[in-house]
């Protein structure tokens, strides 16, 4: 199971970026996906997660209303659309995947930032200029 995260870069405060998380050699449809980030000197934190079912995605309070997680099954990719970026959003962003059968939907949807994941992408840097 390999994930490739890309799409990071430099954005101005108030701008937008779209991150992508591609599954290499396996179908993301069988996995629940989380996006995390880690800024220098800070602990990694959960940003958004999506179950493989039709359930609602979950967002950290700090990004709610600004970020959107979505899937494109045809492209085997999960996206993180980031709008209204703030300097505090600057970090290395990681996507992670866990097999859907590992956790029930109800368990995952309420604990997606705490559960163990089967695979992690390599991270993509997001820089936001003020």
Q: Residue share in helices?
A: under 10%
- End-to-end distance: 37 Å
Order of helices and strands: EEEEEEEEEHEE
**How many extended strands?**
11
Compute the average pLDDT.
94
* General form: globular
Work out the strand percent: over 45%
Overview of the molecule:
The chain is mainly beta. It contains 1 helix and 11 strands. The protein has one helix at residues 105-111; strands at residues 2-6, 9-12, 17-24, 31-38, 45-50, 58-59, 67-72, 77-82, 91-99, 119-120, 124-129. Strands 2, 4, 5, 6, 9, 10 and 11 form a 7-stranded mixed beta sheet that branches. A 4-stranded antiparallel beta sheet has the order 1-3-8-7, with no helix packed on it. A hairpin with a 6-residue loop joins strand 4 and strand 5 (45-50).
Give keywords.
4-stranded antiparallel beta sheet; 130 residues; mainly beta; globular; 11 strands; 7-stranded mixed beta sheet; 5% helix; 1 helix
Put the structure in a nutshell.
The chain is mainly β and 130 residues long.
Task: Please write out the topology.
Elements: E1 2-6, E2 9-12, E3 17-24, E4 31-38, E5 45-50, E6 58-59, E7 67-72, E8 77-82, E9 91-99, H1 105-111, E10 119-120, E11 124-129
Parallel strand pairs: 2-11
Antiparallel strand pairs: 1-3, 3-8, 4-5, 4-9, 5-6, 7-8, 9-10, 9-11
